[in-house]
Amino acid sequence: MKIKKVLVSQPKPTSEKSPYFDIAEKYGVKIDFRPFIKVESLSAKEFRQQKVSILDHTAVVFTSRHAIDHFFSLCSEMRITIPETMKYFCTSETIALYIQKYVQYRKRKVFFGATGKFADLLPLIVKHNTEKYFIPMSDVHNDEVKNLLDKNKIQHTEAIMYRTVSNDFTPEEKFDYDMLIFFSPAGIQSLMKNFPDFEQKDIAIGSFGPTTAQAVKDAGLRLDLEAPTAAAPSMTAALDMFIRKHNA
């Protein structure tokens, strides 16, 4: 199994200093970047079917930049003017700073956790326990946020504002790879949707994270590379080691 052409199911890195480019140059390997999934907003009509009023709330919880984009785009589409008094609670500082794209950033109304985990944002929410919280969500989500807010008796409403869909391949797109790299179970689902007769044969498959690894196995595919590990904490480190071994 010699690796000459790799498909990474993520957008192409914006920085020329990405380790992926170093790997391609070091081993003479072609690396293509092509997301298998994309995120899209619900329509205003679909959102209204949930019978949720955003303006009944005094605070919004954001767990990702996707949530911010689709929250504000749907509000704009529905001509909802968010009041200046609205507070924003974000799981990380990066997400909090991203709000500047849509509203004037003021520390007294933007709060964020230290680690990116919702559990670490929770004490700030509990401190502001008189607020009514709105939680924009994806159609694919776990119930951690809801369960923790319920447990702490916080007033809140969840609503789906965006969804993950398959980013379909066109007939013109060549699919002649020696290795495929996936980062989410949805990516595996998209592979099987785009190529229902997919036969793995000598194609190596790599995955990042335990849920993606499980999705590969559940699809009846062979998992050749799993990251992160102690020896390879990133996908690029794992890929470098894998290609070095197989192309030696």
UniProtKB/TrEMBL annotation:
Keywords, comma-separated and alphabetical: Lyase
CDD domains according to UniProt: HemD (cd06578)
SUPFAM superfamilies membership: HemD-like (SSF69618)
EC number: 4.2.1.75
GO molecular function: uroporphyrinogen-III synthase activity
Pfam families xrefs: HEM4
GO biological process terms on file: tetrapyrrole biosynthetic process
Ranges in coiled-coil conformation: none
Residue ranges annotated for the Tetrapyrrole biosynthesis uroporphyrinogen III synthase domain, each copy included: 24-236
InterPro entries: 4pyrrol_syn_uPrphyn_synt_sf, 4pyrrol_synth_uPrphyn_synth
Name of the protein in its database record: Uroporphyrinogen-III synthase
Source organism per UniProt: Phocaeicola coprocola DSM 17136
Gene assigned in the entry: hemD
